[in-house]
Amino acid sequence: MMQFHREAPLTDLEILGYSPELHAAEVTVWTVGSIICAAVLVVGMTNLFNVVPFVAVLSAAAVVYLGSCEPARRLKARARLRRKQLEHSFAAFLDLVNILLAGGAGIESAFVAAGDSGDGWCFDLFRELMAAARTERVDLWSKFRDVGQMCDVDALVDVANSLQLAGEHGARIRQSLAAKATSLRVRSMAQIEHDAAQQTERMGVPMVLLFMGFILLLGYPAYANTLGVL
Length: 230
Fold this sequence. Notes:
Blueprint: H1 10-16, H2 20-47, H3 53-102, H4 107-116, H5 121-136, H6 140-151, H7 154-168, H8 173-229
């Protein structure tokens, strides 16, 4: 699918529970609102401030473009946040499964008990997937793989493939789960540290601007007095 400001990836819509019709309606509202704001801007700039019409039209076009792009930007940001939440919750879910397996629980009972131990939309999703697997009499990991592919969450797909490989070849599922849980936990911690570093870098810009403003505030009186003496 082409991905530009009026079309959103289906994976982003799926993980947020949005329908294409709802997203199209949101884009329409934002576009119409930006057109109205652009028209007001053109009238105000040309009549009140005597701005060149060409500049006013360019400003209005920029407003319309940004307004029509805003729904896709917001959708992508929310979908990215949802994917991070899902990966972090899935890592915690696998840790719980490993603990239950170490205590002697079976595979299915460990998954069910781990799903019942958490709250939030992620664990609600895990419980729904396990209930659907029991109803349809299919493997648990096949459901996790389907959701991972549908929502573009690689962690779910990788773990499901590893579990299927372990089950088919008689490998020990507990070791496979432990390795995947450790990998997800390390990746989640690296992502958290990366996000924290980015936030720290962003905070540096306001501090520099504040410092420059402080210097100008202190230096302007001296500069004005110097010009007055001259």
